[in-house]
């Protein structure tokens, strides 16, 4: 697999990236914003190449953060053998959820080092259909077309993950755990079983509230960013100092950690600060259309999990203010249709963290798709996949008149 060379970014490219990829307010000082965006856009190259930042690989799925987090433009069909970077990865876990594969690690890597180490394999997406109500909606099924280091085995499961939009993601850190416990108590009276995914923070070794990731498996931005560097780019850090290398890949082990730790703690902190300093543009829902849409949103029961009363605190502007994220940050059983076979800490295969809805309209307008594997192209398709604990909200939505569905969708698109 041919590896592309890195490139240095100039200010015009940085600001162009800001305009094209991240349609948000940047509250931080210009120098800090530029540094964070530059780190986010840095192209990593494998050792032995002369241009770019060394450290990528020896196995990887991307060259840069922006490859997977470009505010959308997600493909709905691709063949990973085409040599192009896509914002989709195939996660690999043991059925008990405690570890990745002994030979393939946490995900199937589509890139190796030309002439030194082949990629781990390739896969393609086959699309199937399911009828919900009067509609047929699609969902992807991964088909592995190549494995270079042996079969996965029956004790292993796989799941597609789509690179998600990062709108206002940094605000999740400010949500207080006690707020979540109050929501859990309220939801229990309604027959729901919202749960905090308590995870082990590998940085401080303490049990913390999981906040980031589709199954809330990361407690902090630092952890989420560091894991992405390791798993997607194959770049080591002080927080994750070892790349996952196949136990029987002596060549991979020998190529690992060439030059020591590859991304500095300062760069990780810079990206974290950049993400904390970005917020979606505020919307005005006080007009009649917005008020009616919100009313149908609440009458359908969407707000039981996509909370209108759970606010995050932002200190990015001169005046501290609150931002509604439209999530409860809790795990919920979403039914068999979204069962992906993977466990992550206390999250079972059918469990998913309630996705924040803030910025969802901008994400869709940029070409993005919804849910963990990008199966939903529209808000309505995403709603139709709500089963399990969310099935009553879905059924309430299906009972709405067409014009009321449109108002509800319009409200969500303008969050």
List the helices and strands and how they pair.
Layout: H1 11-21, E1 24-26, H2 30-41, E2 44-45, E3 53-54, H3 65-68, E4 88-94, E5 121-132, E6 135-147, E7 156-162, H4 177-189, E8 198-200, E9 207-209, H5 221-233, H6 250-255, H7 265-276, E10 278-280, H8 288-299, E11 311-314, E12 321-324, E13 331-333, E14 351-353, H9 360-365, H10 379-384, H11 391-398, H12 402-413
Parallel strand pairs: 2-3
Antiparallel strand pairs: 1-10, 4-7, 5-6, 8-9, 11-12, 13-14
Helix pairs in contact: 1-2, 2-7, 5-7, 8-12
Q: Care to describe what's here?
A:
By secondary structure, the chain is an alpha+beta fold. The protein has a domain at 11-165 and 220-276. Helix content is 28%, strand content 17%. It contains twelve helices and 14 strands. The chain has helices at 11-21, 30-41, 65-68, 177-189, 221-233, 250-255, 265-276, 288-299, 360-365, 379-384, 391-398, 402-413; strands at 24-26, 44-45, 53-54, 88-94, 121-132, 135-147, 156-162, 198-200, 207-209, 278-280, 311-314, 321-324, 331-333, 351-353. The strands form seven sheets. A two-stranded antiparallel sheet has the order 1-10. A two-stranded parallel sheet has the order 2-3. Strand 8 (198-200) and strand 9 form a beta hairpin. The longest helix is centred in the middle third of the chain and has 13 residues, at 177-189. 47% of the residues are buried.
């Amino acid at each position: 697999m041919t590896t592309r060379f890195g490139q240095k970014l100039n200010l015009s490219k940085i600001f162009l990236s800001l305009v094209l990829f991240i349609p948000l307010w940047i509250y931080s000082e210009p120098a800090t914003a530029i540094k964070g965006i530059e780190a986010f856009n840095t192209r990593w190259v494998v050792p032995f190449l002369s241009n770019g930042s060394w450290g990528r690989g020896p196995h990887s799925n991307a060259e840069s953060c922006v490859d997977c987090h470009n505010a959308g433009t997600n493909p709905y069909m691709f063949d990973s053998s085409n040599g192009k970077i896509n914002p989709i990865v195939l996660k690999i876990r043991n059925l008990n959820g405690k570890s990745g594969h002994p030979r393939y690690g946490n995900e199937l890597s589509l890139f190796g080092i030309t002439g030194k180490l082949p990629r781990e394999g390739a896969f393609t997406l086959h699309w199937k259909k399911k009828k919900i109500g009067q509609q047929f909606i699609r969902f992807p099924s991964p088909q592995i077309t190549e494995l270079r280091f042996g079969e996965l085995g029956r004790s292993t499961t796989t799941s597609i993950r789509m690179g998600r939009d990062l709108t206002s993601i940094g605000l999740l850190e400010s949500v207080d755990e006690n707020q979540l416990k109050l929501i859990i108590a309220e939801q229990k009276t309604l027959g729901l079983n919202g749960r905090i995914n308590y995870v082990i923070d590998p940085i401080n070794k303490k049990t913390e509230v999981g906040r980031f990731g589709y199954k809330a498996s990361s407690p902090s931005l630092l952890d989420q960013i560091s894991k992405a560097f390791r798993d997607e780019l194959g770049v080591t850090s002080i927080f994750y100092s070892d790349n996952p290398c196949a136990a029987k890949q002596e060549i991979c082990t020998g190529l690992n950690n060439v030059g020591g730790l590859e991304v500095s703690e300062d760069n990780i902190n810079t990206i974290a600060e950049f993400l904390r300093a970005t917020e979606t543009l505020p919307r005005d829902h006080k007009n009649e259309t917005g008020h009616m849409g919100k009313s149908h949103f609440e009458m359908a029961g969407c707000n039981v999990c996509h909370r209108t009363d759970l606010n995050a605190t932002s200190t990015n502007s001169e005046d501290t203010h609150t931002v509604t994220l439209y999530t409860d940050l809790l795990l919920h059983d979403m039914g068999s249709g979204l069962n992906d076979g993977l466990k992550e800490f206390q999250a079972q295969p059918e469990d998913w963290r309630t996705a924040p809805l803030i910025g969802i309209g901008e994400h869709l307008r940029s070409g993005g798709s919804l849910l963990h594997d990008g199966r939903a192209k529209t808000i309505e398709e995403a709603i139709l996949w709500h089963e399990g604990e969310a099935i009553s909200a879905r059924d309430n939505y299906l009972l709405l008149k067409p014009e009321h569905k449109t108002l509800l969708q319009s409200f969500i698109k303008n969050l």
